[in-house]
Structures are given as structure tokens and as C-alpha cells.
Amino acid sequence: MELVCLGLNHKTASIDVRERFAVGPNKLGEASSKLVNESGADEGLVISTCNRTEFYLAGENGKALITQLEAHLQEHIDSNDPQDHFYRKQGEDAARHICRVASGMDSMMLGETEIFGQVKQAYQAALGAGATKGVLNKLFQTAFRVGKKVRSETNIQTGSTSVASVAVELAEKIFGHLKNSRVIVIGAGQTSRQTAQALMSRGASTVFVTNRSFERANELADEMGGKAVKFDEWQSVLAGVDVVISATSSPHSVVMPFHVEAVRSVRKYRPLFFIDIAVPRDIDPAVGEIEEVYLYDIDTLEDLANEAREKRQLHLQECEAIIDAELNKQKLPGT
């Protein structure tokens, strides 16, 4: 019995290619069964996330399985795009790969935790569909054990590695906690949305959204359970919020020191946290010189995120050692 993996991810294929192979969460079991039937394998399992789709197979002839699967997948390949988007792994290389995937070591965001649950969901779906047996069952149980050890015994998850998560971490340091905090989002872009959602996940209770397009502000406000504010009226909200996220496409500053000075006494000089994600900057740097104001721009946030990413990279060797130890501890079938 031989173990093989055929896959593509954010490193090997653009999003327009990846989406051709994407499988919805509710279709994973069906896709795994179909994989077994169409490849001639004894066992099969499909993992599909926004950043990867991978096919795991166990059968008598690994090379033949990959050849058969590639032939089937050709219908999803654009003939005008000759690039080979797939990686192919066999035996221990395939086992090592899934251990790295489950541990967050192969993710776009190194050390992220969501992938562990996504792999587990894919496994449960394939198991429930009867597409896995001894080889893949043992492989994935090992991968889950490795993933848990990596996260509990190393610091690969330490530090915030995205602008949104860095902003939330800073906000918690300033306020102690974010429970019942109030937020205004100026501009309705993707990063500002992610940052606001991250703040809400940590306890922020109210979100105001303002945008030059009031319709767009309404859309984002509805999505987040917040309230839209007309763009020429956002200053009226400033007195009651704790966090301001700004990400417009304005060529000049949107928030000036006089906006803050006008509400300081009404706010009773409470801390006010500004997150400026715009380029050019939305918030005049002089705003940050006001005593109770904390101002961070996109460069500062990115620098902090990069520092965390670099620290995570330092722990990769420890993670690889855990994988080595687990794979050496027992001889997995198919490897």
C-alpha cells in the first residue's frame, strides 16, 4: 500500500486557479468518495480551504494513482495556462506534509490555528463517507497529534501577525479589555472591516460606519450589526467612541487635531485609539501628539506584524523536530 498527495496552494497557484478546485465544506465527504471511485484508490480524502486543495490517496501503485488523478483534473485546467500548479508527494514526504499543514507550518499566515479545524473537518467528512481506512485513518490521527504538540510545545503562535490582530492587541494594552468599547470605521475597505470584526470578537459592543458612499456604509454596518453615519456627520460620533479605524482613499487627511480637541472635554479626556490603515494617511500625525490619544499608522502596524512573523520563523526548527520524532516513533502504513 502506498500513500500519495496531490495538491495546490497559495504558493503554487493564483486564486483564480485555486477556486476551480475548491470544494465546499458540505461536499467534502462526497468529494472524498468520488475521489476513491474515480482514481481506483483504496482510500481517499479531500482537503479544501481558501488557500489550498489537496487530495490524499492510498493504494497499491502510488505513481499510477497520481497519473490517474491528474488526468481527471485536467478538465479544470485552462489550456491557455500551461503552468504546473500541483505538487506531488509520496510516502513519508506526504506524511510529513500533512503534519506540517495541520500544524499551521504551511499556511499563508505561519502558525495560524484555523487550518487544524479545517483538516479535522475534512477527515471527519471522509471518515463518515467511508472513504478512509487503516492508512489514512492512522496518518491523520498522527497529524492531529503532531498539530497539538506543535502548538503546546513551541511558540509558533506567539505574537500577532496581521494588521487587524496587531491593532486589537494594542487596543487591549491601552484599554485593559475591549468589553463594551465603541468603534467607528471611516471608510469601508476590507482591512478596516477585518479590524473592526476583530475588535468585536474581543468584546466591542458598538460599531459605527461612515463612508462617502452612504449606501456602502449601510451595507457594512448591516453586515456587522452596526449603525451607518453620514460622512459629513462622523465628527458627532467621535465624542462617544474609544477606537477609530480609518481607511479611506482620500488624498489628504480626514481627521485633524481640531476634530479631537473639540470633543476632549466631553470625553473627559478618556483614551482614544486611532488606527490609520490608509495610504496616504487619513489621520494627521499631529493628532498623535494629543496627550490621551494613541495613533498607529499602517507602517507601524506592519512592522509589528513582521516582527511577530520573524519570531514565528525561528520556531520552525522546533516544529520540524516534533514531526521527526512522531514519524520515527511509528512506521506509518504507506510510507
How does this structure look, described?
With 335 residues, the chain is α/β, with parallel strands linked by helices. The chain has two domains: 2-157 and 313-329, Beta Polymerase, domain 2 (2-Layer Sandwich), CATH 3.30.460; 163-301, NAD(P)-binding Rossmann-like Domain (Rossmann fold, 3-Layer(aba) Sandwich), CATH 3.40.50.720. It contains 14 helices and ten strands. It has helices spanning 15-18, 28-39, 62-73, 92-102, 114-128, 134-153, 163-175, 190-201, 214-224, 235-238, 257-261, 264-267, 298-314, 316-329; strands at 2-9, 43-49, 52-59, 87-90, 182-186, 206-211, 227-230, 243-246, 272-276, 293-297. The strands form two sheets. A six-stranded parallel sheet has the order 7-6-5-8-9-10. Helix 9 links the parallel strand 6 and strand 7 (227-230). Helix 6 (134-153) packs antiparallel against helix 14 (316-329). The longest helix has 20 residues, at 134-153. The model has no long low-confidence stretch (mean pLDDT 90).
